[in-house]
Amino acid sequence: MVRIFRHYVSPVKFVLAIIDFIAIYVVAVSAEYIRYYFADISLDITLSGLLLKLIVPMIMVPVLLGFGAYESDSFRDQRIRYSRLTIALIISSMILISIIYLFPITHLFRSVFLLIIILSSFAVLVTHHLVLKIMGGGARLAIRLLIIGDNGAALAAKNYIQETPETGITVIGCHAFKDFQTQEKKPKSVLKSALVTYAQNHHISMILLADQHSASELFEDLLCCRLYGVEVRGLPDFYEQIKGYVDLETIDPEKLASVSGFGGGDLLARSLKRVVDLLIGVIFLCLALPVICMTAILVKATSRGPVFYLQERIGLYGKSFNLIKFRSMRVDAEASGTPQWASEKDPRVTAVGGFLRRSRIDEIPQVLNVLRGDMSFVGPRPERPYFVEQLVKDITYFNSRHLMKPGITGWAQVRYPYGASVDDAKCKLEHDLYYIKNYSLFLDFMVMLQTMRVILFPKGVR
Question: What are the tens digits of pLDDT across the range 258-269?
Answer without folding.
Answer: 566 666 667 788
